[in-house]
C-alpha cells in the first residue's frame, strides 16, 4: 500500500538546494554530471537488503518490438527494466542525486517500438512546492544504462493524485523522433520532434484539463489539476518514416475526456458522442480491429473511486458501446488497468482498481468486450471461487500475517491495480502492479478453459520502500528497519526476503526504532496505526512483539529511545509531549523540561541518560527521562531536520547532523553529555550520522554520514573520528534523497546501511573485501518435511537440531507459513499461531537438547501446503540453517 509520501524532514532543507528548471527547453544535460571532488571515492559494492517490492507500481510497459523487454515505473522509487535471464528487475535511476531528488518519481515511461534501445522517462515527484525542482524528460539509447535529460518549464507529479492514469508519455510508432507528453497543472499537451531533446507546447490542443481531487486543499497536493493524462497513436494511419496521422489524447475533464487529431497533431477535436460524468483513466487501441478501449472512474485514483464504466469506441464509425462487465448499479469501484492481447486483439482485460474490499477484481473478455469473466466470484456468500491460485512463497510477507474472515482472503489479489499488461509476444504472460508489489502469471490462457492458473510475485530486484529508521545491533539480526507503508523487517540474511514484517501489532509505517545497547534482544518501535497502540516491544531481538499502551493524546509514532540496559524507555510521540516509562510501556509519565516534538535518543553506555533536540536546543536527562535540562550548547541547527546518535561504549559522546542552507548546517561532536558541541570543519552539510565497526588497527568506531563535503554530495566514511573522510558511493549510486537514516554494522568493518526514500535499504561493502561478513550466525538447523496431504489439509514433521557447542535448556521455534496454512493439531510441543506466524515451545520431556542432538515435532494443518514450505525458522531470535 502506498500512502502519500512527503519528505517532511527534508522539505525545508531541499527548498534551498533545488532550483527550478531553466526556461530554455534545449537543456541537453547528461545524468550524472561529472563531479569535482578532492576525495577519490573508495570502491564499494552496493546491494539492496532484499524485501522485494513494498510500494505502488502504477505503470508497466512492454516493448512492442522485442520479446522479454519491459519497464516498470514507481511513484517515488525510480524506473526498472525487466531482465529475463534472472527473472528480475534492474534499477535504472540510481544515478539521480540529492539535488534532483524529485526525479526519482516517475510519472510515465515509454519504450520505442521502432528502436528497442531507446527508452524515455518523464520524472518529477510533486507539482506543488514540496518538490522545488521542475520536472524533466530523460532519454536513453542504451535501455536505461545511461541517460540525458531535458528540464521542463513546469513540474511533474510521479507521486501526485492521478499517477496511475496514463501513459502520459508516448512515442510515435512511425516517426520515433516525435513524442507527446501530457502535462498536469493546466500546462496542456507538449511535443518533441527531435527525440526528446527539446519540447514545445501544442498550442492547438484545446483542453488542459480541469479535474482536481480536492480543489480546496491549501497544500496544493490534492487541488492540482490532473491535466492531460494519456496519449495513444492509431498506428494504422501512417507508414514508417512519416508521423502517425491519428492520435487520441485523454484529459482529466469529466465532460470532455477524449480528443482526437487526424492530421498528426495540427488540429484537435473532442470525440463526439463520448460518455460524460467520469474520467478516462486509460485508452488502449486495437488498431487491427479498429477499437479504442477506455476505462473510466469517477475520480483520478489511485486510492479513491466509487463508480466506473468501460467503453469501446469504433474508430471507423464513431460508435460508442458500453461494455462494462457489471451494471452501473453494481459498480462500487472505478476501472483503470487496461490491456489488449496483441497476439489475439479481441482479448481485453481490465481492473477494478479501487475495489479495496474484499479484494480487487480483474475482468477478461475474448470477444472484444461483448462478454466477460472475472478472476473471482462468489460461490455462496461469503465464500469465493477463484480462477487463480496465489503463490507468495517468494515474498511471504504479502500475507501481512493476516487471518481475515471471508470474503476477504490473504494474500489479496491486490489493490490500486492501475498497471495491467499482457506480454505482446506471449499471451500466457501477464503482469500487474499493486500498492505493494508486481504480480504476474505465465499461465494466463488457462483462464479461458476455467483451469486454475498461478499468480506469483514478479518483483525481485524492484525495491520500493521508504526507509524511516535503521538499526544494526551488535548481536542477533544484523539489520532492523523502520519503513513507510509496510512497517519494517528483521533481516537475519540480507540476501533473503524476510518471512514477515513486524506484526502484533502491525504499523502502517514505523517511524522510529531502537534497541538496548547492552541487551540487544530488547527492542522498541513506534509508528502509525489506524487504531490501537502506537508502540511495541520485543524481548527476542524483534522476532515477536507485544503492544504497549499509549499516553493520552498520541496521534502518531514520533521517535523513541531505549535505555542502554533496556530497563526504561523515552518516547516523543506525535500529539503528546515526551514521556518515559520503566518496563514495557504499560503506563507512561510525562517528562519535564523538554518540549513536545523533540527528537529523542539514549546514551549507549549510561542507562540513566537520555537526550533530546528541538529547535536548536539540546536537552539532557540524567534520571532516566524523568526530567530534562536544556544544555548551554549554542550554534546548533535551529530547524527540525536534525538527527543525532550517542557513541556506543563511551558515556556522554554524541554526534549530531542536520540543518538548513540558510542557517547552521553540518556535523557536530560532543564529548561532555551535550554540554558543548564542536562543529567539524570541512563538512558543509550533513543529514545523518551512524557508527560501524572500527577499521583494522583503529580504536575509534567508523563514522558514516550522508553529507556534502568539499562541495560534493555523497555517502562518506571516516575511520579517524572525523579528521578525514572518504566518499564511498559514486555518481552511479546516489539514490536521490538519503537523509533519513544511516548506520554502519558493528560486526563488519566498512559495511554501511543507507536509508532511501523509495529505493529500499541499500547496503554497501568495500569492494576489496576488507570487510568481513560473518553471515547469519546459526547454532541450529531445521528440517521441514510434508509427510501426507489430503483434499483440504496436510501433515508435516519439523526436526530441530542443536548445531552449537552448548546444550539448550528450553527452546522456542518460530516460522511463518507462506500460504495461509493453519495448524489444527501439534504433538511433541505446545504451539501458538498468530496469522501466519507459528511459535512452537518445547514439552517438558524434550526441554534439554544436547549439542548434536535433535527435537522433533509433528502437526496437521488445514489448507494446501506451499511447494517450498516456510522459508525461514528461528530459535530464540536466531535464524537457523535449513535442509
From TrEMBL:
Tree of life domain: Bacteria
Domain CBM2: 773-883
Family matches, as InterPro entries: CBD2 (IPR001919), CBM2/CBM3_carb-bd_dom_sf (IPR008965), CBM2_carb-bd_dom_sf (IPR012291), CBM2_CS (IPR018366), WD40/YVTN_repeat-like_dom_sf (IPR015943), Xyloglucanase_GH74 (IPR052025)
Signal sequence segment: 1-26
SUPFAM superfamilies (UniProt xref): Carbohydrate-binding domain, Oligoxyloglucan reducing end-specific cellobiohydrolase
Keywords: Carbohydrate metabolism, Glycosidase, Hydrolase, Polysaccharide degradation, Signal
Assigned protein family: Belongs to the glycosyl hydrolase 74 family.
PANTHER family: OLIGOXYLOGLUCAN-REDUCING END-SPECIFIC XYLOGLUCANASE-RELATED, XYLOGLUCANASE (EUROFUNG)
Annotated protein name in UniProt: CBM2 domain-containing protein
Organism whose genome encodes this protein: Streptomyces thermodiastaticus
Amino acid at each position: 500500500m502506498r500512502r502519500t509520501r512527503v519528505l517532511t524532514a527534508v522539505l525545508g532543507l531541499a527548498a534551498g538546494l533545488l532550483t527550478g528548471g531553466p526556461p530554455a527547453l534545449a537543456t541537453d544535460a547528461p545524468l550524472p554530471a561529472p563531479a569535482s571532488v578532492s576525495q577519490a571515492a573508495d570502491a564499494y559494492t552496493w546491494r539492496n537488503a532484499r524485501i522485494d517490492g513494498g510500494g505502488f507500481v502504477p505503470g508497466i510497459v512492454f516493448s512492442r518490438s522485442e520479446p522479454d523487454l519491459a519497464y516498470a515505473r514507481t511513484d517515488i522509487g525510480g524506473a526498472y527494466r525487466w531482465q529475463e535471464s534472472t527473472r528480475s528487475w534492474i534499477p535504472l535511476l540510481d544515478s539521480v542525486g540529492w539535488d534532483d531528488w524529485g526525479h526519482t518519481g516517475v510519472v510515465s515511461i515509454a519504450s520505442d517500438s521502432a528502436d528497442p534501445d531507446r527508452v524515455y522517462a518523464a520524472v518529477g515527484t510533486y507539482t506543488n512546492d514540496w518538490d522545488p525542482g521542475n520536472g524533466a524528460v530523460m532519454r536513453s539509447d542504451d535501455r536505461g544504462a545511461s541517460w540525458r535529460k531535458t528540464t521542463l518549464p513546469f513540474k511533474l507529479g510521479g507521486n501526485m493524485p492521478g499517477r496511475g492514469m496514463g501513459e502520459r508519455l508516448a512515442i510515435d510508432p512511425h516517426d520515433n523522433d516525435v513524442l507527446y507528453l501530457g502535462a498536469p497543472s493546466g500546462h496542456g499537451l507538449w511535443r518533441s520532434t527531435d527525440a526528446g531533446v527539446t519540447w514545445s507546447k501544442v498550442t492547438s490542443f484545446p483542453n488542459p484539463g480541469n479535474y482536481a481531487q480536492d480543489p480546496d486543499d491549501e497544500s496544493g497536493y490534492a487541488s492540482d489539476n490532473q491535466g492531460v493524462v494519456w496519449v495513444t497513436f492509431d498506428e494504422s494511419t501512417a507508414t514508417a518514416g512519416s508521423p502517425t496521422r491519428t492520435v487520441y489524447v485523454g484529459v482529466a475533464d469529466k465532460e470532455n475526456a477524449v480528443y482526437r487529431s487526424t492530421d498528426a497533431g495540427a488540429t484537435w477535436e473532442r470525440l463526439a458522442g463520448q460518455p460524460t460524468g467520469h474520467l478516462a483513466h486509460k485508452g488502449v487501441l486495437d488498431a487491427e480491429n479498429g477499437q479504442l478501449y477506455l476505462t473510466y472512474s469517477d475520480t483520478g485514483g489511485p486510492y479513491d473511486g466509487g463508480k466506473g464504466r468501460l467503453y469501446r469506441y469504433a474508430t471507423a464509425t464513431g460508435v460508442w458501446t458500453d461494455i462494462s462487465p457489471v451494471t452501473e448499479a453494481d459498480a462500487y469501484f472505478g476501472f483503470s488497468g487496461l490491456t489488449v492481447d496483441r497476439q489475439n486483439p479481441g482479448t481485453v482485460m481490465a481492473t477494478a482498481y479501487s475495489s479495496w474490499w474484499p479484494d480487487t477484481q480483474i475482468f477478461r473478455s475474448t470477444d472484444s468486450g461483448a462478454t466477460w469473466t472475472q478472476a473471482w466470484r462468489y460461490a455462496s456468500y461469503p465464500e469465493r471461487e477463484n480462477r487463480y491460485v496465489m503463490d507468495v512463497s517468494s515474498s511471504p510477507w504479502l500475507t501481512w500475517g493476516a487471518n481475515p474472515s471471508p470474503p476477504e482472503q490473504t494474500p489479496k489479489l491486490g489493490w490500486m491495480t492501475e498497471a495491467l499488461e499482457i506480454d505482446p509476444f506471449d499471451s500466457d504472460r501477464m503482469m500487474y502492479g499493486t500498492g505493494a508489489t508486481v504480480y504476474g502469471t505465465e499461465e494466463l490462457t488457462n483462464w479461458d478453459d476455467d483451469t486454475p492458473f498461478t499468480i506469483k510475485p514478479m518483483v525481485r530486484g524492484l525495491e520500493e520502500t521508504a526507509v524511516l529508521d535503521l538499526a544494526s545491533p551488535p548481536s542477533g539480526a544484523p539489520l532492523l528497519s523502520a519503513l513507510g507503508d509496510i512497517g519494517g523487517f528483521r533481516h537475519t540474511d540480507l540476501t533473503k526476503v524476510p518471512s514477515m514484517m513486524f506484526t502484533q501489532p502491525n504499523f502502517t509505517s514505523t517511524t522510529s526504532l531502537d534497541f538496548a545497547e547492552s541487551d540487544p534482544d530488547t527492542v522498541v518501535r513506534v509508528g502509525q496505526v489506524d487504531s490501537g497502540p502506537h508502540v511495541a516491544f520485543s524481548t527476542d531481538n524483534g522476532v515477536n512483539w507485544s503492544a504497549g499502551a499509549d499516553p493520552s493524546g498520541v496521534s502518531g509514532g514520533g521517535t523513541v529511545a531505549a535505555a542502554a540496559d533496556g530497563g526504561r524507555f523515552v518516547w516523543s510521540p506525535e500529539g503528546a509531549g515526551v514521556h518515559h516509562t520503566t518496563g514495557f510501556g504499560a503506563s507512561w509519565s510525562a517528562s519535564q523540561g523538554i518540549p513536545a516534538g523533540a527528537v529523542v535518543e539514549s546514551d549507549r553506555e549510561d542507562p540513566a541518560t537520555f537526550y533530546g533536540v528541538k529547535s536548536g536546543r539540546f536537552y539532557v536527562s540524567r534520571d532516566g527521562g524523568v526530567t530534562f535540562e536544556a544544555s548551554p550548547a549554542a550554534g546548533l541547527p535551529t530547524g527540525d531536520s536534525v538527527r543525532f546518535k550517542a557513541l556506543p561504549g563511551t558515556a556522554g559522546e554524541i554526534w549530531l547532523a542536520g540543518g538548513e542552507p540558510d542557517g547552521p548546517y553540518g556535523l557536530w561532536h560532543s564529548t561532555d553529555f551535550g554540554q558543548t558541541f564542536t562543529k567539524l570543519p570541512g563538512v558543509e552539510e550533513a543529514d545523518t550520522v551512524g557508527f560501524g565497526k572500527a577499521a583494522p588497527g583503529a580504536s575509534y568506531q567508523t563514522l558514516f554520514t550522508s553529507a556534502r563535503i568539499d562541495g560534493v554530495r555523497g555517502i562518506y566514511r571516516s575511520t579517524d573520528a572525523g579528521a578525514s573522510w572518504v566518499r564511498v558511493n559514486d555518481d552511479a549510486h546516489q539514490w536521490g534523497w538519503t537523509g533519513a537514516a544511516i548506520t554502519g554494522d558493528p560486526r563488519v568493518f566498512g559495511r554501511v546501511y543507507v536509508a532511501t526514500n523509495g529505493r529500499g535499504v541499500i547496503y554497501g561493502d568495500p569492494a576489496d573485501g576488507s570487510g568481513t561478513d560473518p553471515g547469519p550466525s546459526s547454532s541450529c538447523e531445521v528440517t521441514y518435511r510434508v509427510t501426507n496431504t489430503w483434499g483440504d489439509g496436510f501433515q508435516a514433521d519439523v526436526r530441530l537440531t542443536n548445531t552449537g557447542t552448548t546444550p539448550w535448556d528450553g527452546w522456542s521455534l518460530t516460522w511463518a507459513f507462506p500460504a495461509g496454512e493453519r495448524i489444527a493439531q501439534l504433538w511433541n510441543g505446545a504451539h501458538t499461531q498468530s496469522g501466519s506466524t507459528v511459535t512452537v515451545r518445547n514439552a517438558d520431556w524434550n526441554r534439554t537438547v544436547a549439542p548434536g542432538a535433535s527435537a522433533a515435532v509433528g502437526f496437521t494443518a488445514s489448507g494446501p501446503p506451499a511447494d517450498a514450505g516456510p522459508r525461514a525458522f528461528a530459535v530464540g531470535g536466531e535464524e537457523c540453517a535449513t535442509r
